[in-house]
Amino acid sequence: MSADPIALARDLLRCPSVTPAEGGALAYLDKVLSGAGFTVHRIVSVEPGTDDVENLYARIGTEGPHLVLAGHTDVVPPGDEARWRHGPFAGDIVDGVLFGRGAVDMKGAIACKLAAVLDHLAANGGRPKGSISFLITGDEEGIAVNGTVKLLQWAAVLGEKFDHCILGEPTNPKDLGDMVKIGRRGSLNGTLIVTGTQGHVAYPALADNPVRRIVAIMAAVMAEPLDAGSAHFDPSNLEFTSVDVGNKTVNVIPSEARARFNIRFNDHHSHTSLRALVEARARTAAKGGHFRIEWEPSNADVFLTEPGPFVELVSSAIAEMTGRQPALSTSGGTSDARFIKNYCPVVEFGLVNATMHKIDECVATADLVALTAVYRRILDRYFGAGSGLPQ
Ligand SMILES: [Zn+2]
Question: Using an 8 Å Cβ cutoff, are 310 and 163 in contact?
Answer without folding.
Answer: no
